[in-house]
User: Which sequence fits this backbone?
C-alpha cells in the first residue's frame, strides 16, 4: 500500500515566515520549550494536508484560540513538500482558503478543494486525490438518512497524535466533531480501513449497498404512492399493458363494425315488419331489465335490514361494554358487591335462584355480572371488544354489498331508460322509409366505443407508468441483492482477517505497554478496537500517556509488518501531559525506535515526526533533532529580522 512522508514545511506571510530543513525517514524531532511553536509546526502540516485548524480560521472572529501571528498575517500560506511512494509533490494552501494546489514532478498544477460542497466537474477534492495516491478506495459511509465519504482527515485521527485531545481518549478529535463523526461505527471504520486487508473493499461495497438500498426504498415508496393514487382515481383494478392493448384493439374492431353497420342502415330502406319485430325484442329486453332491477331492489331492502340488525347488535354490545366497565370500576374501588349481601345494610341474605336480593325476577347471567374477579372482568371486556370488532367488519361487508347493489340499480335504470327511449324512436320510424332510431342507436354505440377507447388509452398510460416503476424497482432489487451478497462475502473475509490482525495488534501492544509502563501486566484491544489495560482496573491519568502513544506506535508497526493502508507515517505532538514524569516519558519516546526492527527484513521505510520538550528524549535520539526552539528562537520569525 501507499507510503507518505513530509520532506519540508514552509510558512510564508507578509509579516512572518518559516522553512524547515529536509525531513529524513525514521524519527525526526523538533524540541523546544512551551509556547515556541512546536504545536504550530504540527498544525501547519495538518492544515497543509487538508485538516481544519481553528486557530488559523480567519472567518471566526470570536475564536478564543487564535494563533495571532498567523491569524493576523496577510497573504500567508502553508507549503508542504511531501513524498508518496517515492514521488514528490508540492502542496500549497493559503490560510483561510479551502483550495490546495498540487504540483507534481511533471510540474503540472492541479487545483483541489478541501470541502466536497465546493467541488465541481473541474475541481477535485483533495482527500480523494491523496487517498487515490495512497491506494485507498474512496467510499461512502451511510448512517440513517445521512451519507458522506470517509476523508483523509478522518484517517488522520489515528495518524496524528495531537496534544489537544484529552488523554483518556485515543482518536484525535474529528474536525467537525459531533455524535455522527465520533460514533463507534465511524471509529471502527477508520481502524478497519487503516489495518484491514479487505475492509476497504467491504466498506466500499457497504457504502454502495446502502446508497442503492435508499434508492430502492425511495422507488418502493413511489410505487406504493402510485398504487394508492390508482386506488383513488380508478374504481377497478388496473390491468397490465398487454391486456389493455388487446382490449383497445378489440374495441377498435367493434367500432369499425358499428360504422359499417351504420352505413348499411343509412342506405337501406326500413321495413315496418322488421321494426315491429325489433320493438318486440326491445320490450322483452325491457321486461328482463325490469325484473333484474326488481331483484336488486329486493336485495337492497334485505341488505338494509341486515345492516340495521348489525347496527343494533353493535349498539347493544357497546352499551353492555360500558356497563361492565362501570361495574368493574365501582367493584374495584368500593368492593360493594358480593352474591348474597344487601348493598344497604351489608347483611347476609338468602337469595333464591332467579330472584334479585330485592325479590324481583332476574336472569342469573344478568345477576352474576356484578360478582366477577377483576381478571374475569378484563377477560369479558376483551371478548366483548373482539365481538364488536367482528361486528364492525361484518358491517363493512354489508355496506360494500349495499354500495354494489345501488350501483347495479343505477346502471340498470339507465339501461331501462335508454331502452324505452329506443322503443319510442322505433315507433316513430314505422311509417318512415328510414330507420333513424337504429342509426341513432349505432351513433350512440359509436360514441360509447370511442369513449371506452379513450378510457382504455388513459388506463394504458397509467399502466405503462406503473410497469416502468415496477421494472425499475425489480432492477434495483436485483442490484441491492447483488451488493448485499458482495457485502456479506467481503465481511466474512474481512472479519477473518481482522480477527488475526486484532490478535497480532494485541500481542505487539502488550509487549510495548509492558516496556512503557512498569505496572502494566495486561493489554489488548476489544471488539471496538479500543485498548483495555490491566483488565480495566483503575489507573492514574498519567498512565494514559503510554496507553495512547503505544497504540499509535502499534499501528505503525502493523503497517511495517503487513500490507495495509496505514501510510507508515506518524505525527506525535508533545506527549508529556497529565503529570507523567520526564524519565517515564523518555522511556516511552525511546520505544518509537522499535519501528526500526520491522524495517530490516522487508526493506521498508517510515517517518515519525515528533515534537517534545527540551532534552525530553533518549540521548541516542539527538541525531534526529532537526530544530531546537528556545530563548528568542521561535518557530515563526518576523520578516526582515534575523534569529
Assistant:
Amino acid at each position: 500500500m501507499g507510503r507518505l512522508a513530509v520532506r519540508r514545511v514552509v510558512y510564508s506571510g507578509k509579516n512572518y515566515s518559516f522553512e524547515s530543513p529536509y525531513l529524513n525517514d525514521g524519527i525526526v524531532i523538533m524540541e523546544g520549550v512551551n509556547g515556541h511553536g512546536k504545536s504550530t509546526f504540527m498544525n501547519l502540516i495538518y492544515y497543509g494536508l487538508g485538516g481544519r485548524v481553528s486557530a488559523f480560521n480567519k472567518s471566526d472572529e470570536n475564536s478564543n484560540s487564535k494563533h495571532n501571528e498567523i491569524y493576523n498575517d496577510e497573504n500567508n500560506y502553508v507549503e508542504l513538500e511531501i513524498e508518496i511512494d517515492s514521488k514528490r509533490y508540492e502542496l500549497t494552501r493559503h490560510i483561510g482558503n479551502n483550495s490546495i494546489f498540487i504540483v507534481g514532478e511533471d510540474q503540472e498544477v492541479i487545483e483541489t478543494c478541501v470541502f466536497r460542497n465546493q467541488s465541481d466537474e473541474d475541481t477535485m477534492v483533495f482527500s480523494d486525490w491523496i487517498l487515490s495516491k495512497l491506494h485507498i478506495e474512496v467510499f461512502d459511509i451511510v448512517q440513517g438518512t445521512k451519507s458522506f465519504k470517509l476523508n483523509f482527515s478522518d484517517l488522520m485521527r489515528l495518524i496524528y497524535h495531537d496534544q489537544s485531545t484529552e488523554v483518556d481518549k485515543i482518536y484525535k478529535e474529528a474536525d467537525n466533531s459531533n455524535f455522527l463523526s465520533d460514533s463507534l461505527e465511524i471509529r471502527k471504520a477508520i481502524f478497519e480501513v487503516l489495518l484491514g486487508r479487505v475492509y476497504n473493499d467491504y466498506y466500499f461495497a457497504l457504502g454502495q449497498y446502502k446508497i442503492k438500498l435508499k434508492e430502492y426504498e425511495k422507488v418502493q415508496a413511489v410505487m406504493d404512492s402510485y398504487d394508492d393514487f390508482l386506488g383513488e382515481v380508478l374504481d377497478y383494478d388496473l390491468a397490465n399493458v398487454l391486456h389493455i392493448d388487446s382490449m383497445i384493439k378489440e374495441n377498435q374492431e367493434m367500432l369499425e363494425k358499428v360504422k359499417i353497420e351504420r352505413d348499411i342502415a343509412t342506405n337501406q330502406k326500413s321495413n315496418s315488419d322488421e321494426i315491429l319485430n325489433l320493438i318486440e325484442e326491445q320490450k322483452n329486453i325491457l321486461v328482463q331489465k325490469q325484473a333484474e332491477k326488481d331483484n336488486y331492489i329486493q336485495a337492497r331492502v334485505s341488505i338494509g335490514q341486515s345492516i340495521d340488525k348489525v347496527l343494533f347488535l353493535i349498539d347493544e354490545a357497546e352499551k353492555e361494554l360500558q356497563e361492565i366497565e362501570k361495574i368493574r370500576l365501582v367493584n374495584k374501588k368500593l368492593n360493594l358487591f358480593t352474591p348474597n349481601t344487601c348493598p344497604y345494610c351489608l347483611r347476609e341474605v338468602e337469595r333464591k335462584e332467579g330472584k334479585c336480593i330485592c325479590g324481583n325476577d332476574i336472569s342469573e347471567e344478568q345477576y352474576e355480572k356484578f360478582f366477577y374477579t377483576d381478571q374475569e372482568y378484563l377477560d369479558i371486556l376483551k371478548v366483548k371488544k373482539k365481538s364488536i370488532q367482528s361486528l364492525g367488519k361484518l358491517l363493512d361487508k354489508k355496506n360494500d354489498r349495499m354500495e354494489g347493489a345501488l350501483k347495479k340499480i343505477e346502471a340498470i335504470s339507465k339501461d331501462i331508460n335508454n331502452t324505452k327511449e329506443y322503443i319510442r324512436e322505433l315507433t316513430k320510424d314505422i311509417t318512415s322509409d328510414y330507420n333513424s332510431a337504429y342509426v341513432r342507436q349505432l351513433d350512440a354505440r359509436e360514441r360509447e366505443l370511442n369513449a371506452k377507447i379513450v378510457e382504455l388509452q388513459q388506463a394504458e398510460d397509467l399502466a405503462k407508468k406503473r410497469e416502468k416503476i415496477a421494472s425499475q424497482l425489480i432492477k434495483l432489487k436485483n442490484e441491492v441483492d447483488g451488493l448485499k451478497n458482495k457485502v456479506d462475502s467481503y465481511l466474512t473475509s474481512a472479519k477473518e482477517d481482522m480477527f488475526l490482525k486484532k490478535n497480532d495488534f494485541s500481542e505487539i501492544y502488550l509487549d510495548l505497554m509492558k516496556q512503557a509502563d512498569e505496572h502494566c501486566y495486561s493489554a489488548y484491544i476489544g471488539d471496538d478496537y479500543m485498548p483495555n489495560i490491566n483488565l480495566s482496573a483503575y489507573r492514574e491519568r498519567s498512565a494514559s500517556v503510554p496507553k495512547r502513544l503505544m497504540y499509535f506506535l502499534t499501528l505503525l508497526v502493523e503497517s511495517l509488518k503487513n500490507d495495509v493502508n496505514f501510510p507508515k507515517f506518524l505525527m506525535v505532538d508533545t506527549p508529556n501531559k497529565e503529570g507523567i514524569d520526564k524519565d517515564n516519558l523518555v522511556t516511552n519516546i525511546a520505544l518509537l525506535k522499535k519501528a526500526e526492527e520491522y524495517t530490516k527484513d522487508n526493506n521498508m521505510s517510515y517517518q515519525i515526526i515528533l515534537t517534545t520538550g527540551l532534552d525530553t528524549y533518549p540521548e541516542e535520539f539527538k541525531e534526529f533533532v532537526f530544530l531546537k526552539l528556545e530563548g528568542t528562537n521561535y518557530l515563526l520569525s518576523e520578516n526582515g529580522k534575523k534569529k
Remarks:
- The chain has a mean pLDDT of 85.
- The chain is about 50% helix and 15% strand.
- The two ends are 41 Å apart (CA to CA).
